[in-house]
Amino acid sequence: MINIEIPNYSERLSISEIHKVKLETGFYFMRDLSGEIVYIGEALNLRRRLRKHMTGGNGTTKRFYHVFKTIDIFYCDRKERKIYELYAINKYDPVGNVDGNETANKSILRKRREDWIESLSKDSKIV
C-alpha cells in the first residue's frame, strides 16, 4: 500500500457537539465508546452530513449510528478529502465501511458488518 500521512484531526467532538462542526469540506472518523473507529466518511458540508448520520438519515449507518460516541473531524481541501477517506478506510479497516474498502471482497465485508450489527442488537437486549 502507498503511504499517505493522515493529518492530525482538526477537532475531536462528542456526538452531542455536532453543532460545533464547521460547514466546510473534509473527512471524519466516527468512534464508538471504546474509541475504536467504526466508520469513516467524507463530505462537502461536514455538519450537514454528520447530522444526517445521527438522525438515521444515512442508508449505510442507519442501523448502527447509535454506537457513535465521538467524531474526529479533518477539514481539508475538497480534492484531498476523498483520497484521505479511501486511504483511511483501507488503513484502519472500520467495520462499518464496505464501499471503498479493498482489504477483502465485498461479500466478506458485508457479512462482517451484518454480524457486527447483529451482535449490537444482542448486546442491547442483554442490558
Walkthrough of the structure:
With 127 residues, the chain is of the alpha+beta class. It is 35% helix and 18% strand. A 4-stranded antiparallel β-sheet has the order 1-4-2-3. A hairpin with a 5-residue loop joins β2 and β3. The longest helix is centred in the last third of the chain and has 21 residues. It is globular and about 35 Å long.
Q: Strand share of the residues?
A: 15-25%
Quaternary status of these chains? single chain
Total strands: 4
Mean pLDDT: 94
Structural class: alpha+beta
What is the radius of gyration computed over CA atoms, rounded to a whole number of angstroms?
14 Å
Q: Enumerate the strands of the largest sheet in spatial order, edge to edge or round the barrel.
A: 1-4-2-3
Uncertain stretches of 5 or more adjacent residues: none
Number of helices: 3
Amino- and carboxy-terminal Cα gap = 41 Å
Percent helix, as a range, is 25-40%
Spatial shape: globular
Order of helices and strands: EEEHEHH
Largest sheet: 4 strands, antiparallel
